[in-house]
Design brief:
Shape: elongated
Largest sheet: 5 strands, mixed
Number of helices: 3
Radius of gyration: 18 Å
Bound molecules: nickel (II) ion
Helix content: 25-40%
Strand order of the largest sheet: 3-1-2-4-5
Structural class: alpha+beta
Number of strands: 5
Strand content: 25-35%
Order of helices and strands: EHEHEHEE
Length: 142
Amino acid sequence: MEERQESPATVLITRRETFSAAHRLRNPAWDDARNERVFGKDARAHGHTYTLEVTVKGQIDPDTGMVLDLRDLRDLIRRLIIDKTDHADLNADVDFLQGQLPTAENIVVACWRQLAPALGSGQLHRLRLWESENNSVEYYGE
Ligand code: NI
């Protein structure tokens, strides 16, 4: 390979995974009337097919030409998120959502806390969770 002066470029790469899960939005500290008022129909059990986009930021490794192997990122997301959430009841079944109201906002933050420690320092750049075709939330960490 020819000698290069430039330092490696920093790029963003994104992996998308989906999971189907049930949830209901209900604050256990409130009575039924207040839950119904705040959450409407979402207070009843229903399901979504969620799409989670995981964006990692890093320098291109000059030897591999990659930031990281997307197969490794895929396996990590599946092990830490999808295996636990797919076909699950998000109010009851998922260890990393225990005690949380499973709104898209709370889910995306919980996913961040699952994934960030498993990646290299500062690598996780953004999570975007789509709850439906029109609704998504984004999180960039604290
Ligand atoms: Ni919902």
